[in-house]
Amino acid sequence: MLKLYYNPGSCSLASHAALEEAGLDYEVELVDLTKDAQYSVEYRDKNPWARVPALQIDGQILTENVAILSYIADCASQTDLLPLQGLEKARAFEWLALLSSSVHVAFRPIFRPNRLAQTEQGQVDVAATGLAALQRALALLDRKLGDGPYALGNQFSLCDLYLFVFALWSRRPVLEGKLGALPHLDAFGERMVKRPSVGAAMAQEGMVWLPASRAPRRSKA
Ligand SMILES: N[C@@H](CCC(=O)N[C@@H](CS)C(=O)NCC(=O)O)C(=O)O
Fold this sequence. Notes:
By secondary structure, this protein is an alpha+beta fold. Helices cover 51% and strands 8% of the residues. Bound molecules: glutathione (GSH).
């Protein structure tokens, strides 16, 4: 039996939706990041890095979305959830690595400025510098996705479930009105949220798909 350790709306949603997409039997256990549950002794015994997702597989723990998605694709061998070889496989891992490193990390200064600076002013500076970097990263991501309709072009893959997480994050209230136009990412998100695997994982996590508010807010003055 597989057990996914997750937090609602976190990057663990990619692995959660992938388990649904693959039609595997699994259970979930909440690691409530709002209550710092990732730091509990019990959870750090499983994952010393104190992060979600973690997937328990017959008593072993696998961490990192990239590894978990790759494992899930192999478990669902009857459908190609990730390309199997050659340049197509490399392209898929190019996407996964990009999302896991450059894109995920670009949100951190906005979501967790307190991890990057101690003083209030320092955190304001980190968030402002981080916002400019996030705008650039998302603009590049939007261009790379293009009309898609999927990350790999016409073929759906688990890369799309990971990419969806960042389409979702781009709609968080803290970013409202702060991001430039992301037409491809928005259209992609609208398509993906209708996918049964995404809908099921979102519903289980109690997540909602918010309308995009991209244009910079105009000052009332
Ligand atoms: N590279 C890891 C990143 C995992 C990660 O940073 N997860 C966040 C949630 S999106 C987390 O657990 N944060 C807890 C914390 O920072 O204390 C992956 O993709 O699995």
